[in-house]
């Protein structure tokens, strides 16, 4: 158990995940301690997710996107048993029920959707929507602007209105299978991020929406707001110098602050977790358990 008072972010890697260093950099800049571990260390019981505040699934090409992006990794989390005879999905249910946070970016978002953590309307961790090939039929690798749904109360997005971020994906198109699911996502404001134009107005057409997603959706939260996933990459916009316009910003009359807008999401969640009144108390009670919780 990590005794530090710092907010602890656990970042999974392995099997083709490739954005773990960017994600760790984001958390460190936001003041958290970031630990990168191979997923096998968790599956083999060497690392417990319960020792951490925020569990993170970075972007990449897990299992080469075979069978569909995120599918194989999600199956591994659902069915592969740890030495204690539990699956990581069992651990995730427990983790979320303790009020902790889960973030999935791009391939990580695909994993959370295919595992049934998002949107999880039914609360039974079964897949309800999916992410599939972009309507363009191409891998889309460029910058987009996102609009934040002000009615979504997830701590990740507080105080944000619209911001730019890069996308780099081939399978970012959210598909919602039926009208009832679509309506429940809308009613509960789980559609937390949509694609918009330079002025912050929502635009559903390509190229603003790079993949043809239903609801113009770029990101979802679950009903608790603790689980959050998005197709674009906030961890790739931590500084002014990540932005394609940084050198010509005066010429194109663009205001860019020294700190990248993507960093705000990480600052938000780190600040929120640090402010939770029972965080240190719950850590202490976990430490006193004789048999470590899985
Ligand atoms: N950058 C990523 O995480 C890409 C996700 C996935 N491999 C896709 O192409 O859709």
UniProtKB/TrEMBL annotation:
Xref: SUPFAM superfamilies: Class I glutamine amidotransferase-like (SSF52317)
One Gene Ontology term from the biological process aspect of the record: purine nucleotide biosynthetic process
Domain of life of the source: Bacteria
Gene Ontology CC annotation, any one: cytoplasm
GO MF annotation list: phosphoribosylformylglycinamidine synthase activity
PANTHER family named among the record's database cross-references: PHOSPHORIBOSYLFORMYLGLYCINAMIDINE SYNTHASE
Listed name of the protein: Phosphoribosylformylglycinamidine synthase subunit PurQ
Organism encoding this protein: Hymenobacter qilianensis
